[in-house]
Here is the input.
Amino acid sequence: MTPPGAPLPTPGTPRGGMGTPHIVVVGYGPVASRLVDELLPAVLSGAVALTVVGDEPNPAYNRVLVADLGVGRTTVDDITLADPAELESAGVGLHLGTCVRRVDRARRLVHLSDGTPVYYDRLVFATGARPVVPNLRGLNPDPKLPVRLPEGVITLRDLKDAAALHRAVLDGRRVVILGGGILGLEAALAAADEGARVTVVHHGPHTLGRSIDADAGKVVAAALRARGIKVAADARSTAVHFDGTAPLGEVALAAGDIVPAVAAANGVAVPGAGNVAPPGDVAPAVAAATEPWFSALELDDGGTVSGDLLVLSCGVRPRTELAAGSGLPRPRHPRGPLAAGTPRPQCVRHRRLRGGPLPGQCLPGVQGQRRAAGADRPRLAPGGVARSIPGRAGKSGAAAARRAGAGHTPEGARH
Here is the structure.
């Protein structure tokens, strides 16, 4: 129970008085959004207080649809899963665009990057996963550490990545996708269908090597080529080349389009980058790059694959550093949940369970989240998992979310 004088988050102090259990959720991706939706009745009744911390400035959205967003097939509003104003009015404390610096388990305090200490009775880590950035010369000197990607290189994980892909597609530019998995091929097909010139580079004899056999892989490769996509199979990448220029031009934006996250010639960020555009806006294109821009991917045979945008689709790794830094033991097996230590921090699994859902499904995360928060089992549709959740969970999307089950996402929640 919240002790007298314990610090509470501002703005958006969660509903609940003295003696009300306070749940803090670190991470605001699809799984965390579903957990919040399930806990709202308890928040509204005053049975619990709830605070959510997310490092992106945007509310939770369906991350698996970022590629569709990047090629213009959907909008930010359509893939958004929650309405911050509705949640705050219901009594949920929101800290968006904020990171957790450290967890003081002895005092049950979460210290945020804006200096706010937040007391918790129960702490849920829904930090999800980060994309794997391969150790290529000129790109990533240490793949175990977070890396700032250079200009023209994206992982297609967030709205800024979608904006970069959107620009390349609109201009019909050359997009190189490194990785032959499901998400990489989905992005390749979507970008090619919308006018980009796409090349898929993957290490292995055939695409989807972890999912299908060699004969089926040949069929997939033939289908990709029939759609105008070049495929470089069994190709090991060794380096990334850059030059000092970037694509130029302007593009008119329709309502709901994404403002490209690009830099102006003087190095000043374009206002509104990564946000939803109002009707009639014109987005400045990338001017002369202030940093080197991606130009080619080098292969181990000495050949290169030229392009204007490199999309890394090389898998993900769980984001366990915050939990590990809090003193929680690491899992003995990667398919299992992270162990929970006292006083009551909980970590939610997002990877495959033996004999359970396949990688890329939210169901294990949803079940783990609700167990961590002390909630009842979720009501899921037959089959357990749907491909996506359209609409907003805070409005009409809530009913759709419950009917569809947990939204499909490649990695689960993201902090």
User: Anything to note?
Assistant: The domain at 22-130+317-407 is CATH 3.50.50.60 (FAD/NAD(P)-binding domain). The mean pLDDT is 74. The chain has two domains: 22-130+317-407, 153-314. The chain has ten helices and 22 strands.
